[in-house]
Each structure stands twice: as C-alpha cells, then as structure tokens.
Amino acid sequence: MNTPNGSSSLVYELYCSKCNTKYNYNEKQSFATCCEKPLLFSYSLAKGTSKEILNLANKSIWRYAPFLPILSQKNFVSLGEGLTPTIKLEFLGNHINIPELFLKDETNNPTGSFKARGISVAVSKLKELGIKKCIIPTAGNAGGALAAYCAKANIEATIIMPNHTPKVFKDECMLYGANLLFVDGLINDCGNKAKELNKNGEYFDVSTLKEPYRLEGKKIMGYEIAEYFNWDLPDYIFYPAGGGTGLIGIWKAFKELIELGWIKNKLPKMIAVQSSSCAPIQEAFNDPINWKQKFTPEASIANGLAVPYPFGMDLMLNVIKESNGAICTIQETEIKENVLLFSKKEGILISPEGAATYMALSQFQKNGIITKEHRVLLLNTGSGYKYIENVI
Ligand SMILES: Cc1ncc(COP(=O)(O)O)c(C=O)c1O
Ligand SMILES: [Zn+2]
Fold first, then answer.
1. What is the structure's pLDDT at 265?
2. What is the CATH number of the domain that holds 272?
C-alpha cells in the first residue's frame, strides 16, 4: 500500500445497496443478486483519522488508496488518473453573475475522461483477482479507458458500443488492442449483446454498477473536490448523469468524509443534468411507477448521457433527495451552443456532457434559485476533442 505509514486499504464490508446483505469482498463480485441492485463498499472510518493517512506525494487517485478496495499496492494499475484541475470560470461566471463559479475539468485524465478513474480501480481489481478477460457495453469513454488499462495489465478487453459513436472512440479501442463490436442502438442494446456473448460467464462484466469497483474510483472526485475547496464544499454541484456512477460516487465520498470528520455536515445540493433526448432520471422522478411505458429514448450528441435504463437509478434518486438537489433536462441544440460558448470564451473544448451543466446552471440562475452568493461547481467529465464530429 502506498500510504506514508504503510497502512492497508480500510475496506470493511461489501453490501447490497437495498437490503444490506453482506458479500465477501475478497472474492470476485458483480452486483447484489439478493435484490438485483448495485453492491457498495464501506470502510472502517473513524472520526479524528489524521490526513497523514494520505500519500500527498502521489498525484493520482491513489493518494486516497486507503479508501479504495485494492488490497495490495502491487496490483494498482495506474496511468496517472485523477487529481484534475479546478478552474475558475471568469468569463462565464461574470456573464451570469455567479462570481464563484468553478469547473472541475476531467479532460487531462488518461484517454480524456473521468472514466479512467473507475476503470483504473476495476482493472486493478481484475489483476488482484487474476481475471484475464472482461467485457463492457459503453457509450464511448468507458470503452476507451478499459482498452488502455487492460493493455497495461495484459487483460483481454471486449468492447461493445453503438454504431453511431464518433470515430475517435472506436479508433482508440483498436489502437489499444481491444476487441471491438458495434450495435445499432443505444448502450442498453450493447448491454444485451454483452449478456448474450457472456452467457457462459467467460468474461468479467464491467457494465456500470454491475460491479462495485468502478464506483470507488469515481468517488475520488468527491475527495478531490473537498481537498481543493479546503474541506469546505460548494453550495451546488452540477453533474452530467448517464449511468450515474459519478453522481453516486461523489455523494458517497462526501458521506465518508463526514464519517472521517474531515468535512462539516453542510453538503452541496447535487444537480443531475440530462439531455432531453434521453432523460430517464427525470422520467422516473416524475412517474416512478409507469415511466418506462411512455419512454422513448434517443441518441444524444452528449453520447454519455444516452443511458436509457440506468442500473443505479434508485441510488441516483436517493442522492437527489438526500442532497435536496434536482434534475435538469437540456435540449440538444442548447448543449451544442454551450460547447461553442466554452471554447470561444473560456478556451476549453469541453465535452457535450460537461457543456450541458452550464446550461442547467443558467436556468437555475434565471429562476433566481442560484444567486451571486452561491459557490457553484460544474463537472466537465471529458475532453471535447473526441466529439468534434458531433458539434461542428
Ligand atoms: C463524458 C461523459 N460524461 C458523463 C457520462 C455519464 O457517466 P455516469 O453518469 O456514469 O457518471 C459519461 C458516460 O459515458 C461520459 O462519457
Ligand atoms: Zn439485497
């Protein structure tokens, strides 16, 4: 373990997110079969734990290694993911009169998105468990990340993505040596294809929240946000939610930080941002019983937001409820306009997913909900360079 004092991971339990049934964290696990819900790790977190437990010399997610479920340091598969910059948005902040407006920019991650964080931890776990083959349905970014980390760990990766995904996402998987398949449809159709290929259980399925490791890597965004703001969190966080691991992970981190006593109880309101082409969280919030019957999901220029039936829906709704947050749905044309606004006014070629968060903030500002007194953080979850054909 790479903590300065040589301590190991603080993993305490792995449990069903619905009924708390415990699962063995030393064995390969997928999801909680008792309730067909995601599994969650918990850690032995004691109030008063010193921050010396962190390895601050490490400039990646692994500075927080005690709060990650990898038991031995020799299994860390790292390409330098995490510890991304937070940038003050001077122009856009002035533009809507929110002077304390910040962007956590995930562009600099390996393969250009926050997906590197979760995939680093998942592939480390595969290495720890001696697993040699994995499969993933993806909207693009997670596939690229899996291909790169599996190349580094000498694990075979099979990646299934929608046919309409921009070319760069496809090319990078091939360059990293992964097997690549295309499906006409959205990520749920890719998920069905993955299930079909894996009917004999030959592969480890790395689908969002169908295994508990990626969430832990994504959660480190929450630790980094707290560290950046000197353990005094912003009032609002706007997050582009697809499968939901980022939203759920950041919130999980904040709760762990409260247990550690590193932050106060005042937590941000979490705003889940969706595209009007595919807004299942909004639909499920509006009509929890019948939403699937009337739902007609379509592709989005923010490819990562087109996740029609997220496995972690209950957990996302819970974050919104517990944080007193909200869901905000943005039109496709607005997403595109906001990509251009960021590039022309802030010098950042943002992902369409990230651009949607600023549009959402503008709505809250116009409605008078967010004012100049609030400190606001937007998440840009990936680089816009891979999406150029979607926005030009
Ligand atoms: C750039 C980007 N942002 C956001 C998301 C949504 O991710 P999640 O809701 O699982 O955190 C994705 C997923 O593909 C993505 O690629
Ligand atoms: Zn259960």
1. 74
2. 3.40.50.1100
